[in-house]
């Protein structure tokens, strides 16, 4: 008597052998079915004891887009070496700038070339000069040869260290997959000898099956949730944005309301209200992105007068001002905000939503812009988690307790405080957290209690504690990133962005 089995299982049984293991791909080719279908059939046959599966992890290497670019145009360090040789740096050190110019390297390629140059023995770099090792031979560059080998599908011929190096440079991507090989078991052979026949099975319910009533008689294939399927990476919300949303939910949960306001604003709101002297170094063109647009005219006149008075004369009986220049024109000039404390000023002054009576809590999670030097922890723009609490009798304990409560909700329990100086808060504290990978303490924020010189012109006579925390630094503590450029910008790591889950 012959056994009835689903069609795909019969095809696999008839193709598989008891002596030669066949992979899923081979079975798929031989039976003319999709690998996913074969995988499903094979699992069912294994559960019925008719075949045995052996699993092996196999890794394949392929070039990334960047790797492909360097394979075609030569590695940046090789291009640098060739330019250095042409400039005579094999005999006498040549000026760095000139060699880089001649190499045609641009943007991040320059850093890449510099950081690999000495490591690979192409020469030395220092004091603005570069030398070219006379005996170095770019023709026998192991990494360049490895790029060719990987492109030709011959990654096995590349030694492990070189492959690791290329992977860590992001030039080669290694992917792992499970290869399953299938053999017939004794029971499988016996069943084949007794005879199997294909039962009609359907794998989906169609409108035709429903209207004809045929669905009553057909046999449905079972779902196999273990079957391999193509990996589809669709669009998703960026993890930075997801974390920003999570921070907003957390702060709303702690009783805060959200502030909003302009990215480009009058210096008055960004700096003057904060008792930042107009000749403060952060207000020079070095740090500030000034905009070439007409000045802002609609500032609240009395507030402008009170702020000017605080700058000139200080506040209170024994107060003192800065004795430095203050001009209204300077206050009206427009720049990209270097912090979102400009929003706090708009809200605390009553400008944004009218006068506020204590107690109040406000926050924003918004972009700020600074003319910093790009490095692993600095970008030209980042997200600041701004916040403040207005109430009678606040103390530093309230400030610290708020941070502990906030960071605890992200699993961060080791927050440390260091006394700090801000022109607008007294006392002031920098916050530090421990990086989960490097163990280093990294700065995660800045905070303090607003000074009377800030509060009095705003017309506030209770306490206000406030802070600006860096969202990207929070992300580093949560997920262990070491370089902020992995997370956004042109050098970001797409794989990491696809795989990282932001959990609530
Ligand atoms: N504006 C500060 C943060 C801060 C806000 C409010 C009070 C104290 C500090 C910064 O950008 O670093």
UniProtKB/TrEMBL annotation:
Cellular location of this protein?
A: Cytoplasm
Enumerate the cofactors the protein uses.
Mg(2+)
Q: Which residues bind Mg(2+)?
A: 426
Q: Where is the Aminoacyl-transfer RNA synthetases class-II family profile domain?
A: 247-499
Q: Return the SUPFAM superfamilies for the record.
A: Class II aaRS and biotin synthetases, Winged helix' DNA-binding domain
Biological processes, Gene Ontology terms = phenylalanyl-tRNA aminoacylation
| MF annotations from Gene Ontology | ATP binding; magnesium ion binding; phenylalanine-tRNA ligase activity
Q: What GO cellular-component annotations does this UniProt entry give?
A: cytoplasm
Binding positions for L-phenylalanine per the UniProt entry: 341, 384-386, 424, 450
What catalytic activity does the UniProt entry give for this protein?
tRNA(Phe) + L-phenylalanine + ATP = L-phenylalanyl-tRNA(Phe) + AMP + diphosphate + H(+)
Residue stretches spanning the membrane: none
* UniProt KW keywords: Aminoacyl-tRNA synthetase, ATP-binding, Cytoplasm, Ligase, Magnesium, Metal-binding, Nucleotide-binding, Protein biosynthesis
A Pfam short name: tRNA-synt_2d
InterPro entries on file = aa-tRNA-synth_II, aa-tRNA-synth_II/BPL/LPL, Phe-tRNA-synth_IIc_asu, Phe_tRNA_ligase_alpha_bac/arc, Phenylalanyl-tRNA_Synthase, WH-like_DNA-bd_sf, WH_DNA-bd_sf
The free-text note explaining how the cofactor binds reads: Binds 2 magnesium ions per tetramer.
- Stated EC number for the protein is 6.1.1.20
Quaternary structure (record): Tetramer of two alpha and two beta subunits.
Instruction: Show the NCBIfam families listed in the entry.
Output: pheS (TIGR00468), PRK04172.1 (NF003210)
Q: What is this protein called?
A: Phenylalanine--tRNA ligase alpha subunit
Lineage of this protein's species? Archaea, Methanobacteriati, Methanobacteriota, Stenosarchaea group, Halobacteria
């Amino acid at each position: 008597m012959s056994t009835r089995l689903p069609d795909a299982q019969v095809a696999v049984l008839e193709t598989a052998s008891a002596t030669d293991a066949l992979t899923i791909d081979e079975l798929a080719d031989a039976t003319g079915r999709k690998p996913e279908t074969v995988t499903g059939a094979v699992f069912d046959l294994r559960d019925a004891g008719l075949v045995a599966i052996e699993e092996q992890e196999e890794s394949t290497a392929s070039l990334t887009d960047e790797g492909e670019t360097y394979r075609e145009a030569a590695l940046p360090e090789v291009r640098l070496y060739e330019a250095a040789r042409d400039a005579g740096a094999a005999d006498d050190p040549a000026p760095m700038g000139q060699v880089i110019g001649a190499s045609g390297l641009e943007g991040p390629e320059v850093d890449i070339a510099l950081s690999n140059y000495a490591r690979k023995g192409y020469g030395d770099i220092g004091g603005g000069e570069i030398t070219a090792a006379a005996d170095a031979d770019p023709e026998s560059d192991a990494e360049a040869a490895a790029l060719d080998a990987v492109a030709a599908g011959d990654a096995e011929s590349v030694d492990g260290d070189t492959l690791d190096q290329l992977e860590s440079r992001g030039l080669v991507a290694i992917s792992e997959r499970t290869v399953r090989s299938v053999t017939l078991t004794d029971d499988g052979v016996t069943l084949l000898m007794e005879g199997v026949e294909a039962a009609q099975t359907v794998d989906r319910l169609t409108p035709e099956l429903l209207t004809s009533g045929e669905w009553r008689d057909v046999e449905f294939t079972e779902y196999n949730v273990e079957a391999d399927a193509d990996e589809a990476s669709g669009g998703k919300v960026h993890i930075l944005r997801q974390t920003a949303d999570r921070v907003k939910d957390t702060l709303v949960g702690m009783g805060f309301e959200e502030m909003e306001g302009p990215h480009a604003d009058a210096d008055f709101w960004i700096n003057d209200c904060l008792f930042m002297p107009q000749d403060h170094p952060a207000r020079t063109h070095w740090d500030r992105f000034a905009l070439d647009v007409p000045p802002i005219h609609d500032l609240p006149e009395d507030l402008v007068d009170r702020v000017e008075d605080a700058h000139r004369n200080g506040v209170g009986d024994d107060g003192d001002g800065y004795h430095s220049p203050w001009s209204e024109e300077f206050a009206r000039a427009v720049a990209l905000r270097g912090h979102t404390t400009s929003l706090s000023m708009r809200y605390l002054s009553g400008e944004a939503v009218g006068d506020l009576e204590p107690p109040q809590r406000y926050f924003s999670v918004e972009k700020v812009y600074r003319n910093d030097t790009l490095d692993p922890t600095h970008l030209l723009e980042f997200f600041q988690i701004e916040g403040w609490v207005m109430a009678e009798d606040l103390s530093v304990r309230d400030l610290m307790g708020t941070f502990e409560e906030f960071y605890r909700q992200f699993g961060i329990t080791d927050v440390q405080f260091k006394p700090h100086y801000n022109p607008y808060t007294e006392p002031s504290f920098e916050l530090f957290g421990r990086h989960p990978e490097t163990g280093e303490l990294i700065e995660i924020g800045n905070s303090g209690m607003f000074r009377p010189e800030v509060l009095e012109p705003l017309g506030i006579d209770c306490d206000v504690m406030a802070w600006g925390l860096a969202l990207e630094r929070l992300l580093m503590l949560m997920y262990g990133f070491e370089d902020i450029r992995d997370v956004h910008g042109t050098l970001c790591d797409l794989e990491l962005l696809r795989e990282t889950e932001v959990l609530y």
